[in-house]
Amino acid sequence: MRALVISGGGSKGAFAGGVAQYLMEAKGHDYKIFVGTSTGSLLISHLALNKVEKIRKVYTSVEQKDIFSHRPFRIKKGKYGEMEIAIDHFKVLRNLLRGSKTFGESFHLRSLISNTLTQREFEQLKSGDKEIIVTVSNISLNQVEYKSINDFSYSDFCDWIWISCNYIPFMSLVKKNNNEYADGGFGSMVPIEEAIERGATTVDVIVLETEVTYYNRMPSRNPFSLLTNMHAFMLDRVEKQNIRIGKYVAGHNDAVINFYYTPTVLTTNSLIFDHQQMSRWWESGYRYAKSKDDETSEIHPNDA
What is the pTM of this model? Predict the structure, then answer.
């Protein structure tokens, strides 16, 4: 049984979409299990429906206003032409005075999810033979939870997709079932183990980071950038631990893992959603998966 696992990575999810499109349309892989974290959770329902073009249009047209109902930062061009974020003090203060526990809110993303994944599509998935699982972090119970489409109503499952993407404290902290939940990436950035435990024997894993670290982060300019750098460091550690555990579990279950990393550093801040840039990433993801496939097919079995 084949599974597709897509890691978290914010706007870099566009690259994952391109890779998945190649694997499904060009390679003809028929996945029975889809597991996603954060941006990966946004992709997997539509991939399971084979509606690649629909989700591609979403990823290549989305903007900041489609994600944030209260955006806590401003986007500006840095000294060397790179895009960076800086705290929007007025909006953050206003959000805190409103009683929010986070700097910003992402209620527009929740609306986007329900506007994109219809109830009819949800019912089609639920009655089908594919399992769709999203990863969330239960902050109250200090544990990672995996939410299968088979266990929830339409509204609840849309909530779990949204929760899986909520990169606190920049996005919404959601209270559900008397527990506080946040981005699944805080606990399981690359949920390979979950796919194998659900019966996968071959797992294609899209990791939205380079396999080797190619850069040093820019010095923190303010508390806001320090916080984003700190988050990035922790998530990088979680990702590497998930991959090590996934390889270990695969070895003990005779499962095969195929990794698809980004070949270059796409961005140092995945909170920036630029539809033109994301359109390029989608195309580069497709081309990268094709080039990797071409390289593999050129290797003679006796040469391996």
Answer: 0.91
